[in-house]
Write a structure and sequence with these properties.
The protein is α+β, with helices and mostly antiparallel strands. The chain folds into two domains: 3-138, no CATH class; 142-339, no CATH class. Helix content is 47%, strand content 16%. The chain is built from twelve helices and ten strands. Helix 5 packs parallel to helix 8 (243-265), helix 6 (205-215) crosses helix 10 (289-302) and helix 10 runs antiparallel to helix 11 (307-315). It is elongated, with a radius of gyration of 28 Å.
């Protein structure tokens, strides 16, 4: 359901009927003489799109994330009036509009309840304070997100021998060739949303040793990373701004772990099984450079005659002449030199 807000850069009569007549006149004028926003409304537009991007910047499958009901948003701004259609987070957006509007001497009208918020009025201050208090009470914290994730994953991973490390923010399991682990990363954005970075990794002792020898660098923290796209075939982000969204994200991560990752990791019993379980020729696969480097080192250890072929598959993902292509090509040369 849409929530309409009108923002006026003009004196408003105290009489409701006269005020509504004036607003109707302003809308009529803007409909027939579109010349863009006036100075104050133009400033408000810039402030709003910086915090709440225009719907025209979203892809079709992302439209539900946009707070605006139509667009381009600039078309809703005129010389003396702006009419905004809000369809998500209405109260939060309204509070921000009131905050931005006051220094610009703009009046904000809620036609649904026929309430006018004048700049720096008691009504505007009370509305903003109520929303800020509510947001502070409802806003997720990284600690809350982490607790929910660990509680959800522990029943799945602990029976398999994984142990949660709060210091490393990961579930670890020692295996014959090194370590398997699930890593959790959290990032809180300025607008309160928390991004969750969840992936499965292999730390392979023999691969780390080989990479260190051929590169001359400290590769002790190197790992073979498997991101969500590897298991699902598509790119997606895990993020939440409130408890409802967090519950949905935690459910998705639990399903991904139990239905996709656990069956996969159970196949990884030794170096050859790791190599054979991965579809290196998957043309839809997109992997980061550390993945390619670890795979090439692993290939050298188990099937050294396949290094050149496997390298050609992963080099297809790199821009010709780009830094990743150069790094990968240099690694291939060093690995091939060890077998000659």
């Amino acid at each position: 359901m849409s929530f309409i807000i009108q923002i006026i850069d003009a004196a408003l009569p105290s009489d409701a009927q006269q005020r509504n007549n004036l607003i109707d006149q302003l809308i009529e004028v803007e409909a027939h003489h579109r010349v863009g926003p006036g100075e104050a409304l133009g400033t408000l537009y810039q402030q709003l799109v910086q915090k709440y991007p225009c719907i025209s910047t979203f892809d079709d499958d992302e439209l539900d994330e946009c707070v605006w009901g139509d667009g381009p948003l600039i078309h809703n701004f005129g010389q003396k009036i702006a009419a905004l259609n809000i369809n998500r987070n209405e109260e939060k957006v309204m509070a921000d509009i009131l905050t931005f509007a006051a220094p610009l001497n703009l009046k904000v009208v809620d036609p649904q309840s026929d309430v006018v918020y004048f700049p720096d009025s008691v009504e505007a201050a009370e509305f903003i304070a109520a929303i800020e208090t509510q947001a502070a009470e409802e806003q997720l914290t990284k600690a809350r997100v982490l607790t929910n994730l660990v509680e959800a994953l522990t029943p799945i991973l602990t029976p398999l021998g994984f142990v949660w490390s709060k210091k490393e923010l990961r579930f670890n399991r020692d295996v014959s060739y090194g370590r398997q682990y699930f890593r959790i990363g959290l990032e809180k954005k300025s607008y309160g949303e928390i991004y969750i970075y969840f992936n499965f990794r292999l730390s392979i002792d023999a691969v780390i040793k080989l990479l260190g020898e051929v590169t001359g660098e400290d590769c002790s923290k190197s790992s073979l990373p498997f991101f969500v796209r590897f298991f699902t075939g598509d790119y997606r982000e895990f993020r939440a701004e409130n408890e409802v969204e967090l519950e949905a994200v935690v459910t998705d991560i639990k399903s991904l772990t139990s239905e996709k990752i656990v069956p996969f990791l159970n196949k990884l019993t030794d170096l050859k099984s790791i190599y054979s379980t991965i579809d290196h020729d998957d043309k839809y696969k997109q992997v980061p450079l550390p993945f390619s480097e670890n795979i090439l080192a692993l290939t050298h250890l188990v099937f050294p005659d396949q290094v050149k072929y496997v390298a050609s598959l992963y080099l297809k993902q790199c821009a010709p002449g780009g830094s990743e292509s150069v790094e990968l090509s240099n690694l291939v040369e060093k690995l091939l030199a060890r077998t000659s």
